[in-house]
Amino acid sequence: MSDLPPLPVTFRPNRTRAVLLTAGVAIFVVITTIALLLEHLSPGERLSFVVTAALLAGVLFLLSRPKVVADESGVTVVNIAGRRRLDWAEIIQVNLRPGDPWVFLNLSDGTSLPALGIQPGIAKQQAIADARALRALAEARSTARPTTGPDEDQG
């Protein structure tokens, strides 16, 4: 399959990430500048402004964290607060249905794992292309799926 992306490959919502990181830096700079320019604030109040700005920026930086990294041995899904490593054989199906906020990976243990690194928010066409690429990689590399021919019943 020549249409498979070369490994390793990282899928992430780059436009969304750029917006979140830019907003985080801008919020931190604006609030910190205001804290420094307001002359009637005590040092403790200035510090509280800076800490609040850092917390807001930190939340936006966490929201920009999601990615999906595919390599020869499997996939690493990095979501907002967690990371999970999957072997290719664990991935049964890659889903991005109309209206889904991000890709869902159906796993061999019967569970579904959200992969926030591929989300159609700002860049819908890129997310669809990324989901197709990850699906093609999973289909090409997974040993968990039955190998039935086109004439055999999969029912």
Explain how this protein is built.
With 155 residues, this protein is α+β, with helices and mostly antiparallel strands. The protein is 41% helix and 21% strand. It is built from three helices and seven strands. It has helices at residues 14-37, 43-63, 124-141; strands at residues 9-11, 67-71, 74-78, 83-87, 91-95, 103-107, 112-115. A four-stranded antiparallel β-sheet has the order 1-2-3-4, with helices on one face. A three-stranded antiparallel β-sheet has the order 5-6-7. Strand 5 (91-95) and strand 6 (103-107) form a beta hairpin. Helix 1 (14-37) runs antiparallel to helix 2 (43-63).
Question: In angstroms, what is the radius of gyration?
Answer: 21 Å
Q: Largest sheet, described in full? A: 4 strands, antiparallel
What spatial order of strands do you see in the largest sheet?
Answer: 1-2-3-4
- Uncertain runs are 144-155
Q: Mean pLDDT score, rounded?
A: 90
Taken from the alpha-carbon principal axes, the silhouette is elongated
Number of helices: 3
Helical residues, percent:
40-55%
Strand count: 7
Alpha-beta content class: alpha+beta
- Element-level helix/strand string: EHHEEEEEEH
Q: What is the end-to-end distance?
A: 27 Å
Strand content: 15-25%
